[in-house]
Amino acid sequence: MLLILLILLGPLPASPQTYQNFQRKHMDYPKTSPHLAARLYCNQMMQRRNMTNPICKEFNSFIHEPANVVDAICTNGGTHVGRNLYDSHAAFHLTNCEVIGGRGQRPPCNYRGRTECRRIEVACNSRSLPVHFHKMI
Question: What is the mean pLDDT of each run of 10 residues along the chain (137 residues)?
């Protein structure tokens, strides 16, 4: 009976959009192992932050700025652009990680990394906190 119910409900979302989940996936300040090459940094951080199991997350950005600066995008540090999306006024130091081999890769995961300084767009919750990294702008 439980199996039938689970089939009817369909797949559950991979991860809920919460502030804590956003921090786990995207925040790294101060930057862990700042002298590590971007590729090695990505391989290490994606595994540490549990984004390589059961499949390798295809793309992820780590933000190397204080949480209060990133949080401010949802209020006075950003511009509302529709629904719950906000564009940052400032550029942020980022490390972008992309899995080598494309979508659906299984561990062990191997990433290419790139450091950039870009403005970002985030989705914010009703408490004016970021819950989803939408894109770089």
Answer: 33 68 98 95 98 97 98 98 97 98 92 98 97 98
CA terminus-to-terminus distance, the chain: 48
Contacting residues for 69 by C-beta, under 8 A, at least 6 apart: 77, 90, 92
Q: Contact, 119 vs 5, CB < 8 A?
A: no
Residue among 125, 107, 137, 120 nearest 62 (CA): 120
Expressed as residue numbers, the domain containing 65 is: 16-136
User: Cis (ω within 30 of 0) for the bond into 34?
Assistant: no
User: 97 in a domain, yes or no?
Assistant: yes
pTM of the complete model: 0.87
Residues 6+ apart with CB under 8 A from 105: 55, 56, 58, 99
Q: What is the pLDDT of residue 5?
A: 29
**Structural domain contains residue 90:** yes
What amino acid positions are annotated as catalytic residues?
A: 26, 132
- Would residue 5 count as lying in a domain? no
